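Attaching the record inline, Q. Sequence:
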Amino acid sequence: METEGYRDFEWIDAPGTIYDSHVHAEDQSHWIISGALELSIGGEQYTLRAGDRDFLPAYTQHTAAVAGDEAVVYLIGARK
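Structure, as predicted:
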């Protein structure tokens, strides 16, 4: 991610974690290490699992939630 210009860090969300609809002022990418993360973007729902990666352009409205009973561990990359 760093070679693509992202500033990245590891993040862990516990089971049951839900992020209501929001946006970020920068491009973001999530790279799942373990567990599963559900994203809802523009009425479409996606489940990212270990090895999956997404790309959200700045100001993309979305929600996110941990899927299942396992914590989700992922890298978050952000770039302006």
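The two ends are 13 Å apart (CA to CA). The mean pLDDT is 96.

More tomorrow.
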